[in-house]
Design a protein that fits this description.
Blueprint (H helix, E strand, L loop, with lengths): L1 H11 L5 H7 L3 H25 L1 H4 L3 H18 L7 H28 L1
Helix pairs in contact: 5-6
Length: 114
């Protein structure tokens, strides 16, 4: 049950915007199509970034993503007992990704000067 909840939570944070889908329609089939298109977009974007070497340029980006996922899992566990604002949840992920990009840029600059 926790796995299914995590998958639903992950789908709600997709780039396709589940909130936007509900604003347009409440038809589950159309929402599922939106989620599918969003998942395909995210997959295509990931493949593109790997082929462009973005992960080689931003060496800590993958680590930041893993920390963000871990933080979201922790928030999910805490939210079973306490109400967690959605803004907080979104900011935690964004902060981890932002810090990983900043760390990658700093690391790259240090390597260039050595």
């Amino acid at each position: 049950m926790s796995f299914i909840y995590l998958e639903i939570l992950d789908a709600s944070f997709s780039f396709d915007g589940v909130i936007g889908a509900f604003a347009i329609t409440q038809d589950v089939v159309i929402i599922m199509l939106g989620l599918t298109i969003g998942a395909m977009f995210v997959r295509s974007l990931t493949v593109f970034l790997v082929r462009q070497g973005t992960l080689d340029e931003y060496v800590f980006l993958e680590h930041g993503a893993h920390y963000a996922i871990g933080a979201l899992a922790g928030i999910m566990l805490v939210s079973m007992k306490h109400e967690i604002p959605e803004v907080f949840t979104g900011l935690v992920g964004a902060i981890f990704i932002g810090l990983s990009v900043a760390s990658s840029i700093s690391y790259k600059n240090k390597q260039a000067t050595v």
